[in-house]
Amino acid sequence: MSATRLATTTRRLPGLRFEAQSPPLADSLPRMDVAVFVGFASSGPIDQPVVVEDSAQFVAVFGEDAPLAWDAERGLTMRAYLGPTVRDFFRQGGRRCWIIRVARDAAYNYFPIPALLERRANGDLCPAFARARSEGSWSDGLLIGASLQAHPIEVTSTSFFEHQFELSPNSPSDVQPGDLLRFNLRDEGIGLFGVAESVQAVERELRSPLSEISSACILLVSF
Description:
Elements: E1 35-39, E2 50-52, H1 55-62, E3 67-71, E4 76-79, H2 82-91, E5 97-101, E6 110-119, E7 125-131, E8 154-159, E9 164-168, E10 180-185, E11 190-195, E12 198-207, E13 213-222
Parallel strand pairs: 1-5
Antiparallel strand pairs: 2-5, 3-4, 6-7, 8-9, 9-13, 10-11, 12-13
């Protein structure tokens, strides 16, 4: 009698199967050769890394090569090596680097602005100053000036007792809080100056000489 081997199979019930797929690899690896240069510069932020991608951008932020000392034997001004190093980096194919400017006891230069006053929090008026964008002696030779741009605006009503004036400007944005206004009193031959504290725009109907009614924007300015 011969034995017969029966083949058996495992039956599977219908269901769901989850397969985890690994994310696709990037076409290129991240940059691993970004350089950092630390040194002296004529201008620019101090102790803050700044990314630079070409020599022109370096000069725009950090200026020309910073002078350090006078070499009496050679008769030359010794300058910092940061600028030449960065230029050589880009000349040899570099594309991106970080610059950190270092300095000791560097201070900002402040320039008085002619004919301009600054209003403090307590209401006092003091001379206005402009600060250089970064510390260092690079701004020693700079000069600053100011020019006054006047725009005539019609005054429709005044209330000196309440320190309020009604103006009829061309646009509601012609007068903003903090603007300096000059009032010319032609009959008295004097002029008044005031700083606008608050400005409120209102719409009013105006009647023309031809009995036509039109709307106009009126500014209530308080001083």
